[in-house]
Amino acid sequence: PNFSNQRIIEPYTPIDYTIVDIKTKTKTGFFVNLGMSRNIGKAFFINIDLNYSYHNYSVEIKSVTNMANGEQLNSTIVTAKEKLIKADLPLSFSYSLRSGNINYVFRLGGMVSYITGVTLQPGRVQGEDIDITSSSNINISENRQELYYAAFAGLGFEYKIPRGFLVIDLRYYYGFQNMV
User: Fold this and answer.
1) How many CA atoms lie within 13 A of 160 on its CB side?
2) How distant, in Å, are the alpha carbons of 76, 91, 143 from that of 51?
3) Which H or E element spans position 57?
4) What is the DSSP pairing of strand 72-99 with strand 18-39?
């Protein structure tokens, strides 16, 4: 899930000659999972996991103000890089369909997440010749919800190997509240 993709409304008035370009990026992070599964029927399972993840996001807002004749008057680039760390506890029910050495797994469940830390590094470039003004990381944990709730659906593949399974699990998460 992308917890920090900010919703930003572009400013506009009939006499405003400012052009705003907004770019958001989800960057690489990491994810560690420990899970258990228990049979509750021939092909039905109840699953509980413990996840720990680290997420990186960035947003860049570039605004260029032009005069009425089109000549550039001012330009500003504002950046923000956010790092979010969280622990998740998903609980799900799954159905497994076996075909040879491969199990196809269909999953539905819910999840509660605890946000353990969030930092933001802001930056700004004023004009084209002025260096970037940036700040050190700012702790913004108090500006985020401490607990986050979500539902998810997933599709997975389990391949039987000599001492267990090799698992690929794809999930779609739907958050019930805004993170901020």
Assistant:
1) 6
2) 39, 11, 23
3) strand 44-66
4) unpaired
Distance CA 149, CA 175 (A): 6
Our measurement of the distance from residue 76's CA atom to the centroid of its chain's CA atoms, rounded to an integer in Å, reads 26
CB 115 within 8 A of CB 149: no
Three-class secondary structure of residue 11 per DSSP:
coil
Whether pTM > 0.85 for this model: the answer is: no
Please check whether residue 119 is in contact with residue 138, taking contact to mean a CB–CB distance below 8 angstroms: yes
The predicted structure's pLDDT at residue 163: 87
> Phi and psi for 104 in degrees, rounded to 5?
-95, 125
Name residues of the chain where pLDDT drops below 70.
1-17, 68-70, 128-132, 180
pLDDT value of residue 74: 76
Total length of the chain: 180
HSE-CB of 59 using CA atoms within 13 angstroms:
16
Report yes or no: 90 and 109 within 8 Å, Cβ to Cβ.
yes
Distances from the Cα of 151 to the Cαs of 19, 31, 68, 104, 157, in angstroms? 38, 18, 50, 20, 20
